[in-house]
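Q: Convert this sequence to structure tokens.
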Amino acid sequence: MTPRNQSKTDDNRSRDGGRAAKQTSAGKVVAYTVEQLSALERLKTLLARQRSDEAAKGESWQKKALAKAVYSVFLDCVGLGVEQEAKELVHGEIPEEAPRQA
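A:
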């Protein structure tokens, strides 16, 4: 995303109260705050890194650090009220498509 596009996205977030929406597999639209969406995206990114072949080749301390980062962001998700979504990500139950902005 270019800086110009980023500012447009930020403007859209501020106009709608900082909310983003995602459509579930059941067709229900769920609204997330920017913080919730950010935490879920961070968790998704860390899990992808943890599950990658490159991470499997890493040293022991690197694997432990990555596991701690995943756990920390998972706890952030719990604190932000998106525990179920975080659990689904951890268990691989959410499709690869990222939540969309409203």
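The beta strands are 19-23, 29-33.
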